[in-house]
Amino acid sequence: MEGPLYEQIYNYLMGKIQSGELTSGSRVPSEKELAEQFRVSRITSKKALEMLAAAKVIERVQGKGSFVAEGWSDSSQSVQQSAAVPQKWKLVGLMLPDFADSYGLRLIHGIEERCSELGCHMLMKITYDKSTEEEEAIRSFQQLGVDGFIIFPVHGEHYNPELLRLVLDKQPIVLVDRYLKGLAACSVYTDNRAAANELTTYLIQQGHSKIGFISLPAENTSTIEDRVQGYTDALLRHGHRLESRYLMMNLYSSVPRSFEERNIKIDFENVRAFVELNPELTAFVAAEYNLALILREVLLNMGKSIPEDVSIVCFDSPHNAFGNHMFTHIAQNEFDMGRRAADLLHQQWNEQEVVYQNIVPHQFIKGESTL
């Protein structure tokens, strides 16, 4: 088997379920058992089980273990036959670059909940923000006979041909988080331009006039392009010049599989150089939560106080039931975005007219990184 270890475990268990070796109600090996079998950490085996639970393939019962969910084939059939869900069920192929508590997990929950209400089963594939993985996932889902796709497209300059073919062939498809310019594809996303405008305007109202912006490269990705534009809109509307030297858009550590020590260290040094080169900056807009974390560490390492010396705002944040957030940020309504995506797919199955551009409202949340 190829791919990350937790994905190997995920595919191993899916194979046993689809083949009928594990049927509805069957006990699934525990985190400990899987860790020993595959010689991995329990963190790795736990993530595989969490992915299956998020896709409603298994149910996890505290104190008892994990069990195959109702609705999966109880007979011993081939993978292809068992993947053909009974007539009342539709099969949805969900693809996304990765997921975390800061962004992605609640999106999956929203999609799964609404799919379940609509009588759908959901299969999930992580693409790690690679176009080749995205292409392969589309082909794999087609072989399994999925009835529609919900796709969080990869970050990149070019659209992959398999995705283009789905759109041109008018297959049931919904894009989440971003839209693809020039393509008539149904999309559900946050108004990133308005959200970035709101963050930047807040900093200006706090008295900041020298505001930096840090992000991944835009590379024809609507999410980043719109956030840059929103930042620009706010500056110009309040009479401030757009200084190109205040934009740093060459960071990569927030890309899936990249938030690791080596890449974080590279981005840390690059951000530090950027801050040292522009000492007049008193506030920053970070386009990603992980980049805000790196920026915060850089500033603290330089002896700066947050928010007394420098303010930071960003997009997304881990859920916090107690209401204390490290950063002032835009909270995207991932859960509703997910539910809306499933609804739009359902409308396409019923040959109903759908709106291509669907914006889900966001929320501004005050955190500890601004005064």
From TrEMBL:
Coiled coil: none annotated. The keyword Repressor applies. Residues 3-71 form the HTH gntR-type domain. InterPro entries: Peripla_BP/Lac1_sug-bd_dom, Peripla_BP_I, Tscrpt_reg_HTH_GntR, WH-like_DNA-bd_sf, WH_DNA-bd_sf. GO terms for molecular function: DNA-binding transcription factor activity; transcription cis-regulatory region binding. Keywords: DNA-binding, Repressor, Transcription, Transcription regulation. Pfam families: GntR, Peripla_BP_1. This is GntR family transcriptional regulator.
